[in-house]
Structure to design on (107 residues):
């Protein structure tokens, strides 16, 4: 899985990215599970919301921060590419279109 070819087997820094991704995935699954359990408990045992105005303020601030981040980084659309033969897609192709690039295809 490492992008570099090694002359001997190594499990050092070349594998740190893979191990980091594994730890990140396990943490995200655990977080999703705990949020799901809390949501189910919340549906079963209704608790009154003590300060709904504060919840709306915090949610509005979070939305504003995300919108500013989108504007700053310019990541309104998304793109992906497949490096398996020059086949690439770009979903934010100009004029609201859906652009494709197939540079590696035989003509």
């Amino acid at each position: 899985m490492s992008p570099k070819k090694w002359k001997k087997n190594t499990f050092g820094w070349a594998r740190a990215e893979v191990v980091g991704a594994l730890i990140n995935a396990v943490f995200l699954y655990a977080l999703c599970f705990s949020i799901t359990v809390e949501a189910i408990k919340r549906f079963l045992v209704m608790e009154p919301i003590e300060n709904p105005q504060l919840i709306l303020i915090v949610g509005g601030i979070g939305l504003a921060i995300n919108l500013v981040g989108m504007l700053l980084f310019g990541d309104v659309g998304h793109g992906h590419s497949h490096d398996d033969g020059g086949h690439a897609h770009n979903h934010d192709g100009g004029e609201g279109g859906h652009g494709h690039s197939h540079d590696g295809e035989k003509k």
